[in-house]
Amino acid sequence: MFRISNHYVSKIVFLLLFVEVLVLLGAAYVGAAVRLLEFEDAARTAHLEHFFTSAVAFTVAIIFSMSAMGMYQLDFDEGLRHPFFMKLMPSFLMGFVILALVFYMAPELSFGRGTMALVFMLAGIGIFLARMAIFKSSEARFLKSRIMFLGGGPLAKECSELAMKTSNCNRYDIAGFIPSPSEEMCVPEGKLLKVRDGDSLISLVRQYNVSEIVVSVQNRRSGFPIKELLDCKLRGIKVTDAATFFERETCQIRVDSLQPSWLVFGGGFDQSFVRTFMKRTFDLVCSFLILVAAFPLMLLAALAVWLEDRGPVFYSQERVGKDGKTFFVHKFRSMRADAEKAGQPQWAAQNDPRVTRVGNFMRKTRIDELPQIVNVFKGEMSFVGPRPERPYFVEQLIEVVPYYNVRHSVKPGITGWAQVRYGYGSSAEDALQKLQYDLYYVKNNSLFLDVLILINTLKVVLFRSGR
Questions:
Q1: Are 336 and 328 in contact (CB under 8 A)?
Q2: In degrees rounded to 5, what are phi and psi of residue 279?
Q3: Are 301 and 332 in contact (CB under 8 A)?
Q4: pLDDT one-digit tens code per residue, 212-271
Q5: Which residues make Cβ contacts (< 8 Å) with residue 37, sequence separation at least 6?
Q6: Where does the secretion signal sit in this chain (predicted)?
Q7: Interval 316-328: pLDDT, tens
Q8: Are the beta carbons of 224 and 217 closer than 8 angstroms?
Q9: For the chain, which residues make up each domain, given as ranges?
Q10: 3-state secondary structure of 357
Q11: How far is it, in rounded angstroms, from Cα 104 to Cα 110?
């Protein structure tokens, strides 16, 4: 795993992205070289004057489009079957539209129709071959990490199951488990490592050629080999605790096995002036651009809401923001005007019968969220962050969900990590799952992660899988 601005990125995904950038640049140059053979020297020189910029624009447009289509969220069970082509074709179509806009604004960068067609054909072939090579070599030793689990209880079992998921982008080879006498045995006996009297942890690491030790012991009070773990770390062996392993593999922070000291002494939680300034600038720029682009759509949405039942167009509701302060969030009304006529707040659920036909479409495409841009301009919300919840539910969730208040240490957002990774929440259990994603965002928030969330939001909108 790599860390880019605190966010974990799989080695395989990073390798695939690197290879496909080279493929796309190569396709642009090869396609242009083939087409330019029929031109005279003077025309060829004029055409190549801005070609590097054109090739970069083509590469960025296609990589962005493929990311928006979720093509870098790899599933090794799916492989290169039918869904790959169902995503590649729309990705190329989106990339073509983006390039058409770029070339319209900067005609000197244009490839020309013949060159463009050839470049896209070569790029499609190259991406298919690159992905086939990556998927076929995903079991290669150099892409795998050989790990050992210190512990044999429920936590070690859960960690190992996570490591062995076949659809996982991170590939692991499990050497075995070193059980702790203070906990119940939950892993198969055949997976236990043979530890003889006098064997040190570093000797076992060398014997089994281990590159990482995952500490998955819940009770660390007696017999915990802290000195031996330090010795391993000093000799270049990676030592990872279970909380960090879960964070790395699921992009969540698990609260059921979390130690408060891990939050206190661990990295992340950047609330510096520089980060705050960059985030505010990012919020204002994104909000302004989307407001300008979506204003005609917002007018049509307002008209559609009013025509459906002649009810109010907008809906304002009290929510809890940063530091627990309340504010009123603004949305296009997507439910019946009498959705809570009994006066009792209710969870919004998927396929909620209170949602109108227009409201259902707006929810799937996130159009109902657009008026919250006003909240962003007022400084009550960010463009990206944990979704704000109603005070009535916050009071309940604080009582039953550990660390729930941590999400209020940053401004809530129109879209967020939990919204693009998890479905509708209609219970305390759903709130716990979403909180684990929110905690990951609060801990690791950065401009890079904000951009990833926006790209994933675009994927949610395109596939109408709104959260």
A1: no
A2: -70, -40
A3: yes
A4: 999 998 877 767 888 999 999 999 999 999 999 999 888 999 887 777 778 777 777 888
A5: none
A6: none
A7: 999 999 999 999 9
A8: yes
A9: 2-136, 141-250, 273-462
A10: helix
A11: 8
